[in-house]
Every structure is written in structure tokens, then in C-alpha cells.
Design brief:
alpha/beta; two-stranded antiparallel sheet; 2 domains; single chain
């Protein structure tokens, strides 16, 4: 009996149905019943949406599995303070901001920022 570890954190985000997330779901849902019985599966997940992620891969069909929690990664992009609270800046805007602090003269495009902040409007 082998132990197989699978990181299912890609299916816990908003892009779970494309890219790595869809690949994880497809691989795990197409493992044969015999392989599910003959191996131990360890699923690595974040605490949030843990049960939803396990449902997406039909974890109950794995007779021998365990769940291990992964600490949530800190946000990659910095935050800006708004009237509605903190909002993350996309990484490309962060790089533009950082290069300006180093003396590079640039102008920022705020069309991306306005799309990002549009959900804060009531």
C-alpha cells in the first residue's frame, strides 16, 4: 500500500474550474476504484472551504484518505486603504509603484484599479 499526497489547494480559490484546479479535479475523480482501495491518499487543504474542496473531488469515494491542513499563504500583493477597508493591489501595479520609488518616471494606468475597486460601490 502506497501513500499518495495531493495538494488540492488550487481548487479552493476562485479559479478552481480552470488550469491546475480543473486538472486536480479530473485526475482525482478518474482514479480507479482498485487504486483508491489499494493506496492511502493524503489531501493537503486550507482550512477555509475545506469541505467544499473535498466534495469537489468526491473524497468519500476514497476509503483510505486523510486530510492535512496547510497554513494559508499571506497575500502576495500589498494593500491600499479605502473607505470600505483594505484592498489588495495587483502585483503589476505594485511593481510600477516600487519602480517609481527608485526614481523611474512612469505614469500609472488606473483602469485596472478602478475595475478592482468597482465591487466596493454600493
Amino acid at each position: 500500500m502506497s501513500t499518495i499526497g495531493v495538494d488540492i489547494t488550487p481548487i479552493q480559490g476562485p479559479h478552481r474550474m480552470r488550469g491546475v484546479g480543473s486538472t486536480v479535479i479530473n485526475v482525482l475523480t478518474h482514479i480507479s476504484g482498485e487504486d483508491k482501495r489499494n493506496n492511502v491518499f493524503v489531501f493537503f487543504v486550507y482550512e477555509f472551504n475545506k469541505h467544499e474542496a473535498l466534495d469537489l473531488i468526491n473524497a468519500s469515494s476514497f476509503p483510505n484518505y486523510e486530510v492535512r491542513l496547510v497554513p494559508a499563504a499571506p497575500p502576495i500583493s500589498p494593500s491600499i486603504k479605502t473607505a470600505k477597508g483594505l484592498v489588495n493591489i495587483p502585483t503589476r501595479l505594485k511593481h510600477m509603484r516600487d519602480s517609481r520609488n527608485k526614481g523611474t518616471k512612469i505614469s500609472m494606468c488606473f483602469y485596472s484599479l478602478s475595475r478592482m475597486l468597482s465591487h466596493l460601490k454600493e
